[in-house]
Design brief:
74 residues, mainly alpha, elongated
């Protein structure tokens, strides 16, 4: 479930897909079903919604600009 949520985030942030497109393309998301699928979507949605706050919290802790950090790590 966490892997599916991470893949959704990767597809939206790195590949510039909408969340709906990412859900249609994500193999890890397709492998889960029912409540787990809903929870993975909720995790990804919450992370995207709070991305600005997450970035603000991380920026002072990084030795390089946030834009230089891979979305997979971020």
């Amino acid at each position: 479930m966490r892997r599916a949520a991470a893949d959704l985030l990767f597809l939206t942030l790195e590949k510039r897909r909408t969340l709906d497109q990412a859900m249609a393309e994500s193999a890890p998301f397709e492998e889960i079903d029912g409540p787990d699928r809903g929870f993975a979507r909720a995790i990804a949605s919450a992370a995207l919604r709070e991305l600005g706050r997450i970035d603000l919290a991380l920026a002072p802790l990084l030795s390089r600009p946030l834009q230089a950090v891979s979305p997979a790590i971020r």
